[in-house]
Structure prediction request, 284 residues.
Amino acid sequence: MNTIKKNIIFVIALLFIARTFLFPGISIAEQDSGNHGDYTIGVGDSLSILVWDQANLNQEITVLPDGNITFPLIGNVKAAGTTSKTLARKISNRLNTIFRKKPTVTVIVRSIGNDFFYIMGAVAHAGTIPYTHRTRLLQAIILAGGTVVGAKTDSILLIRNNHTRTVSIEDLQKGEHLEKNIEIKPQDVIIVPMSTDQIYIMGESNAPGPYFYTKGLTVLQALLNAHGFSQFASTGSVRIIRQEKDGSKKIIHIDIDHIENEKKTEQKEYLKPGDLIYIPQRMF
Prediction:
């Protein structure tokens, strides 16, 4: 008798292990499976749907353009916009109206059909970017060649499912607040706006004219953007002319000749939108 009991327990244990590893379930009835548990199913995705103890219902299905799949016995089921866990539960509940026992359903995302996102604006290579699992915002911008001069990295737009949010990558570029590096989803649209703010360089520069202002821009960085000084420049008499809010003008004198390291105040003089950098001609 003890031998029979042991054999029964052994068989039950084997069945439990088989169901756990071959057909995992949500609680007991349905479960998400594969590596895309949190992934939102989209049009064109290829799915494997397995029904425990009903092998004739197992299906390889592609999500149709209207977002539905057609499953035996229950007809159309909305798949796009759900996770594999939710879809498995839907199918299981529908099948439960046909079978006495609620079936265990497993949904596996085999391949992603809408596997791309879009990026436009102030990046080196705007366009369509192939989506890979777990791509994040900073990676997406790097895949587009990075931002260009004048990009407003503190006000990037992310459009998802017709909803828009504003995000910043300034901290991410410093390796800080990595929790802001949000995950990109297929069909996302990323817009990196171009700054409309400018600063101006006049006088003895190799390339005088207007330049895009970016937050944290210093005098030396601006002068480097303008390819440095001409041979006639008085580098010890550079001036920043700034319009104040009350309409008055503030003049800041910068002696480039005496900047020796980054701790010097002059080198870290941050510019503001609308600043004019004037480089006078030296006296011979």
In short: Residues 13-36 have pLDDT under 50 and may be disordered. The first helix runs from residue 2 to 22. The longest strand covers residues 105-111.
